[in-house]
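I am writing to request your help with a piece of structural work I have in hand. A protein sequence and the structure tokens that stand for its backbone fold form the material at issue. Please examine both parts with care and let me know of anything in them that strikes you as inconsistent. The record follows directly beneath this note.
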Amino acid sequence: MNGHPVPAQMDSDLLHEAFRSFDDAAATLQQSYQTLTSRLEQLDVELADRNEALRKNLRVNEELREHLTAIVESLSTGLLVMDETGTITRCNQAGTQLLGLAHEQIIGRSLATCLKDAHLDGDVYPLTTQQGAAVSLSQRALQTSDGRQAGSLALIQDVTAMRELEDRLQRRNRLAAMGEMVGRIAHEIRNPLGSIELFASMLRRDLHDAPALRGYAEHISSSVHMMNRLLTNLLLYTKPDCSHGERHETEALMLNALTLAAHAVAGARVDIRLDVNPLASHMWCDAGQMKQVLLNLILNSIHAMPNGGTLTLSARPAAEARTGGAGICLSVSDTGIGIPAAQRSRIFDPFFTTRDEGTGLGLAIVHAIVEGHRGRIDVESEEGRGTTFTIALPNHHTTSPLPLQESPDLSFSEGYPASELIAERLLVGEETSA
């Protein structure tokens, strides 16, 4: 033996060293694997949290989108969204209704084309839709949050109610000014009329032995009385006395008015119907004044049906929006010739009439009396199909409800023809208490 390692011993040492290195490497790999496994688990948790947050954001965005869509679709204003090229990309339900076009006829087309198809390309304000509504049209730029232009918006606003309020205010101011003028003139005319009547009565007395000349004096007196009645109506128009309001039966008032109009009803081929809602069986009003209102409207309706037709008197509870509180709506409808659109804004003006024998005070007095009751009167008419006058009256807040009394002779089923009952009353001379 010369002191050199034995080859077998060397191989064994190398093998042990290799196993030791392998064990160290395996331990390192095991540690790295555990670290990687822990990191993957941490990433899985983070990914799950982020996915949950993303789902929540998507759900919130979807709910917000649905909410905004519901708001846009619930708007009464028509909303059209256009891109940079002017092509309509979105339209809400109000837009399709006001344009009178289907959704497919709007999307993908230009605003000018759609307005032309909807006949809203005129230059007269307000524009009128095919359904008869008055609308205004405005357009503005659509910008993003960073100020970049992203198209434009077109808004179509239904201004029918606003126009009606404007017309009603203008009519009230016009009638108030005319009423003041008419009242002063009526008072000034009444003074000399009294003197004329006095001298006419003296002439009738002094001309007792001259029948021909006495007849002239009687004609003068008759004309004076006629003018006095006209002046009385004028004063009633300027300041109607509605201070004697009480609760009255609605049907009884209608029947009394129909009875007063019997001379016109008898000579007309008119089917008269009453339709009184049980909830509107009583109303607060001045009975005498309200009978005059109904009488004037009934006579107008009969004159509007020279060839016959149907006259309907109805009553129903009024919506609070119409009267400012719970009240009643009375309607007088006919199937006559209707009122031309050009005349509707003037029908309540004093002395405006389309009949040669009319004075033009009937509807003016109706309007004044309704205003005196703190109500309002509206008219809807279509030429050739008829007219409906609707009176909305509030209930008097200081009036305590009266006990309802049974009145079998005034009880009507819905839509019951009233002509037969009125005829019976005329035959027997019966009068209805208001």
